[in-house]
Amino acid sequence: MPTLTQLKQLAKEHGTPLFVVDHDVLRKNYAEFRRRLPRVQAYYAVKANPDPEIVRTLYEAGASFDVASLSEFKIVHENIKSMPPKRRQEWIWDRIIYANPIKADATLEYLNRYKPLVTYDNEAEIGKIRRFAPQAGLILRLAVPNTGSVVELSSKFGAAPGEAADLIEKAFRAGLVVEGISFHVGSQCTNFQNYVQALELADGVFREAWSRGYTRMRILDIGGGFPAPYDRHTRPFKELAGILNAEFKRLFPPEIEILAEPGRFLVATAATLVVEIIGKSVRDGKPCYYVNDGVYGTFSGVLFDHCRYPLQSFRNGSKELSAVFGPTCDALDVISSAEELPRNLKLGDLLYSRDIGAYSTASATNFNGMGPTKIVAVNSILR
Ligand SMILES: Cc1ncc(COP(=O)(O)O)c(C=O)c1O
To answer: Which of 59, 187, 204, 351 has a CA positioned 20 to 30 A from the CA of residue 42?
Structure first.
């Protein structure tokens, strides 16, 4: 993680707002994920941060990839475009999953040549895949409890456990091949019981499908949700990994291939944002600072990801409760209405937020013509 002196130096060199990605942290997070879950193949969920340099570093570290659109597919594909066709095809089959249960016809048509793995959770999708991507391998997405996860996903995606085996049967009857089952327990999942229940449900669906003769199903995809350590109250990944490893052993024989789609866990702690105070006022007795990035930009996770990114000053001194606003003309552009910051910060002073790598630049807009925020990499070359 860059020191305060490095951050100030980078801001001087590149200007602000500045999104600083530490690639050593990416490598460290990926290595930790692999070390603690040795049975699991990690498919980085590109949606969390599609910066091509981040994808490149994780590719070099040996990651596989979860993509949710053609443009994400192409970002990953850039890294393998010079492979001989046969090897590239094998790599795509083994290392990419298109994990968006809803796909446009044109997307399926484009993907079909690559024989990808794709998820689905409804009957209409079976018809589309049969017509436009019959070469794809299918993964049935199951709806599972998302209780207590910061970002809930099961209200939009996943087949009810009671209809899952029928959907598998329908896909096989349509001439397609279902390779396995996936789920997502919700993002920033700190209720580890969600995973335990989801694994039980997946086990039940496997058994039902096998009993109907679909014994070739061998992939279990446990999705994302692995929590980033945003504060000291977050239960550690080590504890979750212990629970998962025990459940894998109890429920799934070694011939079941287990994969996961971690997004946030790999990138959240790898980035720091540096912003500059460009305006100040006092409103209702409270100091208010206007900075040059906001919720329409890199702080978009405040709205879309229900995330808080504490702001810190490079200055010391006694603190007071302050508000921090983004630069646009919209009053929704509030980064924090209660931040402990040193008294009487000056125009031109810098602030920074750590752990802002996931769902931040990824969902930033160009509203008011203010964006995109410059991204710089540190430690991008392996020393
Ligand atoms: C299908 C799918 N897989 C993986 C992820 C990544 O989840 P996380 O960032 O919680 O690990 C998401 C996030 O929305 C998702 O929708």
So the answer is: 204
What is residue 318's predicted lDDT score, i.e. its pLDDT?
96
Helix axes 52-61, 70-77, angle to 10 degrees: 60
Is pTM beyond 0.85? Reply is yes
CB 234 within 8 A of CB 192: no
Rounded Cα distance, 42 and 263, in Å: 10
Q: Give yes or no: residues 202 and 239 share one domain.
A: yes
Tell me the C-alpha distance between 16 and 164, whole Å. Answer: 50
CATH number of the domain at 9, please.
2.40.37.10
SS3 12: helix
**The predicted structure's pLDDT at residue 302:** 97
Q: Is 307 a catalytic residue?
A: no
Please give all residues whose beta carbon lies within 6 A of any atom in ligand 1, as ranges: 45, 47-48, 66, 99, 153, 184, 187, 223-226, 261-265
In the block, residue with structure tokens 């000053």: 313
Find residue 40's DSSP bridge partners. Answer: 258
Q: Are residues 49 and 144 in the same domain?
A: yes
Average pLDDT, the chain: 97
Q: Which atom of ligand 1 is nearest to the CA of 358?
A: 9
Question: Minimal CA–CA distance to 77: which of 42, 105, 114, 44?
Answer: 114
pLDDT tens-digit readout, 107-131: 999 999 999 999 999 999 999 999 9
Q: Which of 268, 289, 308 is the last residue of a domain?
A: 268
User: Span 2-16, mean pLDDT?
Assistant: 97
264 plus 276 within the same structural domain: no
Of 380, 378, 376, 379, the closest CA to residue 18 belongs to 376
- In angstroms, the CA 303 to CA 163 distance is 34
Task: Report how many domains make up the chain.
Answer: 2
- The per-residue pLDDT for 371 is 83
For the chain, the C-alpha Rg in angstroms (whole number) is 22
Q: Give counts: helices (H), strands (E), the chain.
A: 12, 16
- Domain of residue 356: give its range: 4-19+271-378
